[in-house]
Structure to design on (215 residues):
């Protein structure tokens, strides 16, 4: 019971964040940025998959309704399935909205790394040693993944099982993870749709001494 309560709270918080994201996306509530900041999306690699699920969900709703109307003419069951189908469709659209309105942001204060509404942390520029564009494949299906490397603990915040930017830190940075614990991280690998542009802007703010940007 003690574990069920925190998990239930997380599920409720996620659901609220998803619907709030959908509201902001529909009514075009822009993200407030500090002067000089720029957003970097990470939805490009998963957008085709999300759109496929959305289209399939939209097609399934009238099909199942037609089947139930002629095969199982139970009005209560038909309405329940219809409500669940519409909810599932809106949930998928809300997931896309959540990824869209919570992008990475590079600005004067630092690099703000996000993964939807479930993960958000700020990397101050004085903590950045080097940054480069490099595509990496992730062995894990988890979007947020920890592993050990020469630079210490590596936090990967991927999309579509890959990352595209490596950020090596001068010192370990304490980051609060979605699981509810804090990890001291020495390197951050994240996915951005425009890795070269993110690296270029990040180098300006972080004063990265390495001029080469290689994949």
């Amino acid at each position: 019971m003690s574990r069920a309560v925190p998990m239930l709270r997380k599920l409720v918080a996620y659901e609220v964040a998803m619907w709030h994201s959908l509201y902001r996306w529909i009514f075009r509530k822009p993200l407030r940025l500090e002067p000089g900041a720029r957003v970097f999306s990470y939805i490009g690699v998963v957008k085709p998959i999300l759109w496929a699920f959305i289209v399939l969900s939209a097609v399934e709703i009238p099909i199942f309704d037609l089947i139930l109307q002629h095969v199982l003419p139970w009005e209560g069951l038909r309405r329940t399935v219809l409500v669940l189908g519409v909810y599932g469709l809106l949930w998928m659209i809300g997931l896309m909205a959540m990824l869209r309105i919570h992008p990475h942001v590079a600005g004067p204060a630092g690099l703000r790394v996000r993964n939807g509404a479930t993960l958000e942390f700020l990397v101050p520029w004085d903590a950045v040693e080097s940054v480069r564009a490099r595509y990496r494949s992730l062995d894990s299906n988890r979007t947020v993944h920890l592993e050990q490397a020469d630079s210490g603990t590596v936090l990967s915040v991927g999309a579509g099982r890959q990352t595209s930017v490596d950020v090596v830190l001068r010192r370990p940075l304490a980051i609060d993870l979605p699981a509810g614990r804090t990890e001291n991280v020495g390197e951050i690998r994240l996915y951005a749709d425009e890795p070269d542009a993110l690296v270029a802007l990040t180098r300006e703010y972080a004063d990265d001494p390495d001029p080469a940007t290689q994949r």
Q: What stands out?
A: The radius of gyration is 20 Å.
